[in-house]
UniProtKB/TrEMBL annotation:
Keyword check for Transport: yes
Stated role: Channel that opens in response to stretch forces in the membrane lipid bilayer. May participate in the regulation of osmotic pressure changes within the cell.
Entry protein name: Large-conductance mechanosensitive channel
Membrane spanning residue stretches: 12-35, 70-93
Membrane topology: Multi-pass membrane protein
UniProt keyword annotations, A-Z: Cell membrane, Ion channel, Ion transport, Membrane, Transmembrane, Transmembrane helix, Transport
Length: 153
């Protein structure tokens, strides 16, 4: 039973998930600092409110005689917060990891080429491609018409 648990924990997925949660918590702190240190003062300049929670707030009478509050600023603040997290995650993690994977794949391809395991991919020139198309069309037309005609290249 302990061996199964150890194997489960040792799998890359669990470790990756744990790292993601820790980094996500750290990013939350950074994003909150950006929002409170930069975004909220900008909002105070524009909307004369300390935070987006207090900006774009509308009181609307209800059918029962009370009032309800629509806080569009709160929604805009959540969107800004999400976009800030997405931008930081993309530029700090996704883009560098993609570049790293591309480099690793290129090195693996180069090593395979050097070992003679894989042939290099050489794109066909336009002329070579047209010659192949011509030959395929010639084969198709000679196959469809039987042995009546012959095409010369």
């Amino acid at each position: 039973m302990l061996k199964g648990f150890r194997d489960f924990i040792a799998r890359g997925n669990v470790i990756d998930l744990a790292v993601a949660v820790v980094i996500g918590a750290a990013f939350t702190t950074i994003v909150n600092a950006i929002v409170s240190g930069i975004v909220n003062p900008l909002i105070a300049l524009i909307f004369q409110a300390e935070t987006l929670d207090q900006a774009l707030v509308f009181q609307v009478p209800t059918l029962t005689g009370g009032e309800t509050t629509f806080s569009f600023g709160l929604v805009i603040g959540a969107i800004i917060n999400f976009l800030a997290v997405a931008v930081v995650v993309y530029f700090a993690f996704v883009m560098p990891m993609n570049k790293l994977k591309e480099r690793q794949e290129a090195k693996a391809r180069a090593a395979a080429l050097a070992a003679g395991v894989v042939e290099p991919e050489v794109p066909l020139s336009e002329t070579e491609l047209l010659i192949q198309i011509r030959d395929l069309l010639a084969e198709q037309s000679s196959g469809a018409s039987g042995t009546h005609g012959s095409h010369s290249a």
